[in-house]
Design a protein that fits this description.
Layout (H helix, E strand, L loop, with lengths): L3 E4 L9 E2 L8 E2 L4 E4 L8 E2 L4 E6 L3 E6 L16 H8 L11 H5 L7 E6 L8 H8 L1 H15 L3 E7 L3 H8 L8 E6 L8 H9 L14 E5 H12 L6 E8 L8 E7 L4 H7 L10 E3 L6 E2 L12 E4 L10 E5 L6 H10 L4 E6 L3 E4 L2 E4 L9 H9 L4 E4 L3 H8 L10 E4 L2 H7 L14
Parallel strand pairs: 8-9, 8-11, 9-10, 12-16, 17-18, 17-21, 21-22
Antiparallel strand pairs: 1-7, 2-4, 3-6, 4-5, 6-7, 12-13, 14-15, 14-16, 19-20
The chain binds iron/sulfur cluster.
Length: about 450
Amino acid sequence: MPNCRLFLKQSIGVPAVPVPGLAVGSKVKKGTLLAAQGAGLGIPLHASVSGTVASITENYIELLADEKQSDDFEPIPKSEDIAEMVKAAGLCGMGGAGFPTYVKLQTKLDGGVIIINSAECEPLLKHNIKQITEDPKKAYRGLLLAMQATKAGRGILAIKSKNAEAIKAFRSVLQNGDNVTIHELPDMYPMGEERAIIREALGTLLGVDQLPAVAGAVILNLETICRIAEAVDNRRPVISKNVTVVGKLKNGRESHVFMDVPIGTQLTSLIDACGGIDGMFGEVIIGGPFTGVAAAPDSVVGKTTGGIIVTQDIPQEKRPLGLLVCACGGNEKRLRDLAEKMGAQVVSVRKCKQAQEVKGALKCENPGNCPGQAEKILEMKKEGAQALLISNCSDCSNTVMGVAPKLKPKMAVHHMTDHVMRTVGHPLIRHLPINAGQ
Ligand code: SF4
């Protein structure tokens, strides 16, 4: 087994701090506490493999894994307090947000609702749906524990209607009297955005700076919910992550799901497990097609890693380019990165008019519900843009297509996900069929 590189910062908040006595050469078991929670919001870090500490730096601890790995692990301390066990396990939002989960479980909902976010909103990612289909009992157990910790009166599974098998599996484990229901979502991006889920499931549209607690809700990603059950019932620390690998791979371009990949595993190991990259490629993306970023060659799996995507070449564009930035898709930095790889000169940048800045990040006023993009497109045209690169949601991409190609001269439209979608033969994010989504 190759080295595992475990970054001290795996979540929102401060990095974990290596425990006293840990040194290069120390022997560790799977689950050994490597680094304690830092002073403030954060989570601890545990060894994802048994082995020897190979290096300790300011940013990470590297383990040389033993040749033979057992399924056994060092358990976290037992406690009657669910949030305490989740805290000790080092759990954060595994859907990508990385917010420490114990803090969410300390919310007092007093009759409110826990919602499992199983939207798995990013196209091509499949590990959440696989997990709930194959192990609905664990998801249900995690939900009941989260309800108990927060004193929530009910629970909801939010999942897209298209995942009929997963819905059937979850329905089969529901118990009378637990007050758990299923809310089906349309197949659009970004249905997994927290405020979109609350709007769809509870009928409340929160403000851009309001947290789900305002609607009496806590939202937890599907894998996070399952890890709550593992932390409490099995005393298992968070040492692995479910990941989807997809793209230009020798073993096929469909999505390959890997369950329980040790945290710190190199991306290249998972790509090799899919037969390796199939010839020339454009990018390796870490994350989903909308919110992922180009990975560095030595990138590793962290607690928030969901996808690894190998793309074909990035299309070239010689016309002056305008960037239209969505709050829920790629940000301006990512679009500029892609524009450079396209060989294009950026002459204009606009954000969607529903994208508001909150604490340095963009938040959408009404995710996935387009206000119309004509004004922004015309402004960019005036500034010299002859083609567009957009990161918009399904609905807004649809409205862009209702304007840009109809102008004289017409403006070409690139969506940031195009090279990903073309790689796997998925329809491009452009027109939104009525009742069908992407
Ligand atoms: S309405 Fe605008 S900001 Fe909101 S999701 Fe759609 S493109 Fe993004």
